[in-house]
Amino acid sequence: MFETLTLAGLPAEDEALRPAIRALADSAAAAAPADVRARSWSGFDRDFSRRLGAAGFLGLTLPRRYGGGDRGPFARFVVVEELLSAGAPVAAHWIADRQSAPLILNYGSEAQRERFIPPICRGELVFCIGMSEPGSGSDLASVRTRAERTATGWRLNGQKIWTTNAMHGDYMIALVRTSGTADDRHAGLSQLIVDLKAPGVVTRPIVDLAGDAHFAEVFFTDVDLPADALVGAEGEGWQQVTAELAFERSGPERVYSSVVLLDAWIAHLRAVGRDDAATLALVGDFTARLAMLRAMSIACTARLALGESPVTEASLVKDLGTAFEQELPAAIGDDLAAYPGEPVDAELHRTLMFVTHIAPSFSLRGGTREVLRGIIARGMGLR
To answer: How high is the mean pLDDT of the chain?
Structure first.
């Protein structure tokens, strides 16, 4: 059943992380122009990720015996908030730290935990998530990529698409069908760890409207995988993915995708001295919505800290956060156009163009708006 979100604060011991992570984030981002910092999610820098790992800012919620920080979700919230607010490059460790390591911890074998989690905590491994497929749209349960049992393990055939950073990745955790057909829906789905350098794996980057290539399509042709590539129990992939997505949908990353643009626009307003009532009201509206979304995200984090899986609440945060992130560039563009006499510097213009071009993807990644609203409706007992 859907539970109401209860407002929560960040514990003092986790807030205490803020000065150190802010300094590290600024060291990587402060000198970069706003349009580069706006690419924080897709900014790929292995060296910076290793620096984060060495400083103890990766794997914060994971056990110390695997190289983690043995802390709670609030600590990770503070770190993520600072990284994205600064516009630091996070792509090299993002998925491994947020999803892959917790998944392996919760469902993987002890051998998998010992093999993969320590280097993830050091920022040394790049993971990607193989969920979407051509022709499936948002219907994740209809995946057709298939793994058949062999004498030594599994043979994988099929295709994934819209896979973030697969061209840079070391491993993919892929949702595949190990029994039945696509008509069986959730039954027969499993998750496998795929070495992206294995024979038979071909990765092709996809260039987006902004000219960047952080998505890719990945093809599997008779890829032989060992028996221990299976994560968790065969046929339990759907349940595992559902739990995994709660980590993806409720964090501050669903609020801050456009925040560098917001900061750049406010700096522009200060530079030109515009402080009329309408402009201040618009700034106030953005600020109030951002504060509300942040509070909701912290409330979801509090549920995670209690060991709960706030699937419905996380979907609500993601849906509302995406709407805010997408409305921001449109509103800022309209505002700047309403004052044609104001000089707009090239950096702000580039930043606005990038966020405007990439904003449509915000309601695709991590679950489309339609899928999320279906989850919310079920959680509220409306369908």
So the answer is: 90
**Surface-to-core class of residue 198, CB atoms within 10 Å of its CB (0-12 exposed, 13-18 middle, 19+ buried):** middle
Please count the helices (runs of H) and the strands (runs of E) in the chain. Answer: 14, 8
| 219 three-class SS | strand
Q: DSSP label at 97? A: I
Mean pLDDT over residues 73-89, rounded?
95
DSSP H or E segment with residue 95: helix 94-95
CA dist 62 and 368 (Å) reads 29
Contact status, residue 120 vs residue 71, Cβ threshold 8 Å: no
Q: What is the DSSP string of 200-229?
A: TEEEEEE--TTS---EEEEEEEEEEEEGGG
pLDDT recorded at residue 207 = 83
φ, ψ of residue 180 to 5 degrees: the values are 70, -160
Tokens of residue 327, six digits: 């409305």
Residue 89 zone, left/alpha/beta (φ > 0; ψ -120 to 50; rest): beta
Full DSSP string of 133-164: -TTTTT-GGG---EEEE-SSEEEEEEEE-S-T
DSSP 85: H
Residues 6+ apart with CB under 8 A from 55: 20, 21, 24
Q: Which domains does the chain have, with CATH numbers?
A: 12-125 (1.10.540.10), 129-235 (2.40.110.10), 240-379 (1.20.140.10)
pLDDT in tens, 200-230: 999 999 887 767 777 899 999 999 999 999 9
Q: Choosing from 248, 253, 313, 325, which is the catalytic residue?
A: 248
- As given in the structure block, the two tokens for residue 228 are 């221990």
Q: Over the range 224-257, which residues count as b (16 or more CB within 10 Å of their CB) and which as e? A: ebeeebbbbebbbbbebbeebbbbbbbbbbbbbb
DSSP state of 10: -
Clarify whether 15 is annotated catalytic: no
